[in-house]
Amino acid sequence: MINQEIVSKLVEVDIPTSEIELQALFAAMDNFIFVFDRQGHHLKTVATNPALLEGLAPEERRQALRKFLPLAHEQPFLSNVKTALRTKQTIEIEYSLVVDQKEVFFEASLSPVQRNSVIWMARDVTERKQAELSLKESEERFRSYFNLPLVGIAITSPEKGWLDVNTKACEMLGYTRQELTQLTWSELTHPEDLILDIELFDKIMSGEIEQYSMDKRYFRKDGVMIYTNLGVGCVRKSDGSVDYTVALMQDITERKQAEDALRRSEEELRKKAKELEQTLRSLRQTQAQLIQTEKMSSLGQLVAGIAHEINNPVNFINGNINHVDEYVADLTGVLQRYQESFQPTPEIQAEMEEIELNFLLEDLPKVLNSMKIGVDRIRQIVLSLRNFSRLDEAEIKSVDIHEGIDSTLLILQSRLKAKPDCRGIQIVKEYGHLPKIECYPGQLNQVFMNLLTNAIDTLEDSSQRAVKEARDTELQFHQPTIWIQTKPVNDRSISVHIVDNGLGMTEETRRRLFEPFFTTKPVGKGTGLGLSISYQIIVEKHGGKLECFSIPGKGTEFIIHLPILQQDQQPNAILPTLKEADCSVESCN
Asked: Across 192-276, where does the E strand assignment appear?
């Protein structure tokens, strides 16, 4: 608006006597000024912007008002002139004119100077009007975008209050516009998202950032939680402080629910895949165990069958050899008395000398005695074979485990003998005084078989190496040996130590020793199930403990811990280690 103090001065000045002063005032202002009388006749013109008067000839500048204004503006202007003269008050008006085919906007004031004249002071405000129009158009565009039902839009104060929200935001949150403007956005935010949201909002307030985005959860009025993708920007004042913030909220609840459902489905599928993998592994292990068990069962049946078939004729021989011994004794006695009572004829004497009758009479009892010993040996072997097979002892029995160890050694006797490429294996037994143990005898014999077979395998490998590397004096005189020691641990458990002085193993191999299908033997020589099955038999079937200790190049020790009674199973009990065992690898070597 035009400076009111200048207008007041103009009102006080007498035009005829103060023309010079007025001209100076007019020239100092960025306006052009007309002086009109009550009837609208032009009296005087001054313009600081000469371009405004270029279209008017000097003689035309003193014409009537209609020469300066379009007809539509003339009557309102005259009415305002009369009102200003009547009320002695300045009247402010705005209008526009077409100048050089362009619309020019003016802001003017009509101020009474004398009783019959007014000063019309006008200013070109086209730039301001254009800026206002642009701002209005921008606001209208923003309002049209604001009301679009695409995303929720909220304008908030620096204090986190809702200043305005669009219809979409109200629909998303379940509140009316009036209700939301009475709340802050922090009141509706999920607690787990509130900390991050406030942290980022505070960074906008401090000027560290201008905008941010995040996935954020809100609680609707009905208590239902919704997911949104939130984008926040700010509008700042001239001093840099935040005037307000604009938040765009896109409802992504369905997408999040789909993602959660997909994630749960993937987790379920991974879980099922893992279960299937475990099931497949268990099936493979069970299948291999069944094959191994079937092999052992077949071996047991074969051994039992052989023992049975041998046992029958041996029992027949053993039952009759005593009678033969008696018969021979009787016949020998009769023959001796006959020799004493009668003189043999020359023919009989010659035949007696030919068959060496005296030697026969002396040697025949010895032969019979040797036959008795042989039969007893066969009976012991048969008993050991039957003891190993244990086909009639599938349930828990109280047994002497020494019998099982001895039976196993008898079965493996042929592998202990010397061969061209390896030395014979020496067995050292150190049996303690043990009570009978409640166990599954056949399965326990299977464990002894697996452990002793492994010990024999490693000793054969080391012996073959010694033969090939005869230059190595230490290997050349190496005696392959297996120590078997049994002893009571306490009144509730016993231990069995099986130690060899073979090649030993690395720590990595020892850690994986009881894994199913793990083996260090060549393909076709080992299945990797013997020790795994042995571990299950000792730990799961008998509630015991199976440990392995090894020193590379020195040997290996297996320790079996078994409860004496099955009701005393203590699978988690602390049992002796290699250092505590009397028969360690180092002490036995």
From this structure: 211-219, 225-236, 242-251
pLDDT digits (tens, 9 = 90+) for 245-286: 989 998 998 888 888 889 899 999 999 988 888 888 777 767
For residue 99, the number of C-alpha atoms closer than 13 Å in the C-beta half-sphere is: 16
**What is the value of pTM for the model shown?**
0.42
CB proximity list for 500: less than 8 A, separation 6 or greater: 455, 458, 459, 480, 481, 482, 483, 555, 556
Q: Are strands 225-236 and 437-439 parallel, antiparallel or unpaired?
A: unpaired
Q: Is the dihedral of CA 345, 346, 347, 348 positive or negative?
A: positive
φ, ψ of residue 154 in degrees (nearest 5): -135, 135
Q: Which amino acid is at 388?
A: F
| Range with the poorest average pLDDT among 62-66, 119-123, 256-260 | 62-66
Which of the residue ranges 238-242, 460-464, 474-478, 487-491 has the most confident prediction, judged by mean pLDDT?
487-491
Q: Is the dihedral of CA 184, 189, 195, 198 positive or negative?
A: negative
Give buried/exposed letters for 280-318 (b at 16+ CB in 10 A, else e). Answer: eeeeebeebbeebbeebeeebeebbeebeeebeebeebb
Residues 6+ apart with CB under 8 A from 198: 186
CA distance 539 to 28: 111
Contact between 488 and 434 (Cβ < 8 Å): yes
Residue 511 has a CB neighbour count (10 Å cut-off) of: 12
User: What percentage of residues in the chain have a pLDDT greater than 90?
Assistant: 16
Instruction: Please give the DSSP secondary-structure letter assigned to residue 62.
Output: G
- Mean pLDDT over residues 491-511, rounded? 89
Q: Calculate the alpha carbon distances from 195 to 154, 163, 200, 212, 467 in Å.
A: 20, 22, 9, 14, 77
Residue 54 is predicted with a pLDDT of 47
d(Cα 391, Cα 171) in Å, to the nearest integer? 80
Length of the chain: 589
Q: Strand pairing partners for 107?
A: 94, 123
Q: What is the pLDDT of residues 573-585, one digit of tens each?
A: 333 333 333 333 3
Angle made by CA atoms 351, 353, 359, in degrees to the nearest 5 = 120
